[in-house]
Amino acid sequence: IHHIVHNGGLYKKPFNEAFEETPMLVAVLTYVGYGVLTLFGYLRDFLRQWKIEKCQNATEREEQKDFVPLYQDFENFYNRNLYMRIRDSWNRPICSVPGAKVDMMERVSHDYNWTFTYTGRVIKDIINMGSYNYLGFAQNTGACQEAAAKVLSQYGAGVCSTRQEMGNLDKHEELEKLIARFLGVESAMAYGMGFATNSMNIPALVGKGCLILSDELNHASLVLGARLSGATIRIFKHNNMQSLEKLLKDAIVHGQPRTRRPWKKILILVEGIYSMEGSIVRLPEVIALKKKYKSYLYLDEAHSIGALGPSGRGVVEYFGLNPEDVDVMMGTFTKSFGAAGGYIGGKKELIDYLRTYSHSAVYATSLSPPVVEQIITSMKCIMGEDGTTFGKECVQQLAENTRYFRRRLKEMGFIIYGNEDSPVVPLMLYMPAKIGAFGREMLKRNIGVVVVGFPATPIIESRARFCLSAAHTKEILDTALKEINEVGDLLQLKYSRHRLVPLLDRPFDETTYEETED
Amino acid sequence: MDIKPVKDYFYWLYYQYLLITCSYVLEPWEQSMFHTVTLTVFAMVVYTAYVFIPIHVRLAFEFFSQIFGGQPESTV
């Protein structure tokens, strides 16, 4: 069921998000599957305990058997008994640039995935549906590569210092001015690692006596940063504005738990695109709530910067809002810019404060110069300042690819989560055996996908996650769709009970309602 | 020589059974153990159905016809 929201005119275009419910039979069968695996897990653990079978995971040495246990045996139960059996779908070594197509080293396992050996063969030209290469800047040829090579020969690769000491290059200053201009904020700061940007800067912004309202499905970096800060954390249901408003009201009315004093700060942590669900945050409503209850907003645009919005400026532009309404705009360069690192943008006073008090700025090595040049070149390309329309075409190509791919998958009958415009497409698998089977069957057909199970997702909702790219041409997408269709029939993955009538030639968002048959 | 599509279909059904019961990921000896147990349980269910269901159906039919019919038809 597609929800079109018109909340008092806050949304300028329809917000189509759908999370189809798990069919009852599929849920029951998934639990049956997990039950069987649990039984066999207990059997194998029993055999390992009584030394009937060799134990291949980590154990203490003989001399230390009487000490306090070092390895938590039961907590790794899932790891030993399910993950190990299907482990060959993860950590696959690739040996070329992760563009639209990628080369992969072939590996086999003779002892059921406990160890791998390389056969020496390289599987060439695998269609890459798993890299976060949204705008196609992961290339080893072209303007970005030449600029990065020039900077590499001029500055070298290492910086050998932190930003505060001797690691502040003129390239970093140039990059930060460019980021501020790109986002439409007053000032910005760049860090070496996206995860560290979140986990090291949230403790600098909030402390004890502050309140953090964090979405249910926030990324581990946000959760870690929130926990490190020492503030009180309250969770609201995923993208649910009623839940957020209730928490805000309770916070303002009741204050801190024992003393009833008002909270020093209330910080709302949301992400632009949630990568496991493919959903987009309801930003107009969050900003309206933030203004009403006078709290601060921290927006993590890791996946949405460059991927959403008519000119790629992220989720703020996608909804047509003012970037100055978001207090802290954070993002990463790993996804759309083909580089590494993260940034935080906001008011000048905030960024100047972070330059002195953020752990990342004081202790972490700054960005490497060729990476900085890659970001500068790709950002200029997206903005159109390098004189070509290449950037704009990439953004448009990504939007077209997203709409086409999602529509075709829905027509085929798969259950797809998330918003219509998000380039992250989760396809539901549910049963644990299908996780391994899907990964292997797709690799046999030369398509590389990322499959995800517990604990990154709830236990029965395992999924395959496709990340679309502007580098994918329509032929590549058609090939991929054909193979996904075949594998879907082979593995019986077409669970959806809402059949979409295939569209002929009309744009998708105008005809959503009339096309859905229940 | 059209036995191949039929064989493929049965192989596909077997594959679905492996996927649904999660025995696809088990090692061969675990799979044999699981198949033995499943087949035993299934055979017992089939045998029980074969022995008991006709008798139960006939008794239920007589019971309900006695209630709704109620005519002087003695079952002596």
TrEMBL record, chain A:
It is found in: Endoplasmic reticulum membrane. Its EC number is 2.3.1.50. It is an enzyme of class 2 (transferase). Residues 124-484 form the Aminotransferase class I/classII large domain. GO terms for biological process: ceramide biosynthetic process; sphingosine biosynthetic process. GO terms for cellular component: endoplasmic reticulum membrane; serine palmitoyltransferase complex. It is a single-pass membrane protein. It comes from the Eukaryota. InterPro entries: Aminotrans_II_pyridoxalP_BS, Aminotransferase_I/II_large, AON_synthase_class-II, PyrdxlP-dep_Trfase, PyrdxlP-dep_Trfase_major, PyrdxlP-dep_Trfase_small. Its cofactor is pyridoxal 5'-phosphate. The chain crosses the membrane at residues 24-43. The keyword Lipid metabolism applies. Belongs to the class-II pyridoxal-phosphate-dependent aminotransferase family. SUPFAM superfamilies: PLP-dependent transferases. Its main location: endoplasmic reticulum. One of its GO terms (molecular function) is pyridoxal phosphate binding. Pathway: Sphingolipid metabolism; Lipid metabolism; sphingolipid metabolism. This is serine C-palmitoyltransferase. Keywords: Acyltransferase, Endoplasmic reticulum, Lipid metabolism, Membrane, Pyridoxal phosphate, Sphingolipid metabolism, Transferase, Transmembrane, Transmembrane helix.
Automatic annotation (TrEMBL), chain B:
This is Serine palmitoyltransferase small subunit B. Pathway: Lipid metabolism; sphingolipid metabolism; Sphingolipid metabolism. It is found in: Endoplasmic reticulum membrane. PANTHER family: SERINE PALMITOYLTRANSFERASE SMALL SUBUNIT B. Signal peptide: none annotated. Pfam families: SPT_ssu-like (PF11779). It comes from the Eukaryota. Component of the serine palmitoyltransferase (SPT) complex, which is composed of SPTLC1, SPTLC2 or SPTLC3 and SPTSSA or SPTSSB. The heterodimer consisting of SPTLC1 and SPTLC2/SPTLC3 forms the catalytic core of the enzyme, while SPTSSA or SPTSSB subunits determine substrate specificity. SPT also interacts with ORMDL proteins, especially ORMDL3, which negatively regulate SPT activity in the presence of ceramides. Component of the serine palmitoyltransferase multisubunit enzyme (SPT) that catalyzes the initial and rate-limiting step in sphingolipid biosynthesis by condensing L-serine and activated acyl-CoA (most commonly palmitoyl-CoA) to form long-chain bases. The SPT complex is composed of SPTLC1, SPTLC2 or SPTLC3 and SPTSSA or SPTSSB. Within this complex, the heterodimer consisting of SPTLC1 and SPTLC2/SPTLC3 forms the catalytic core. Within the SPT complex, SPTSSB stimulates the catalytic activity and plays a role in substrate specificity. One of its GO terms (cellular component) is endoplasmic reticulum membrane.
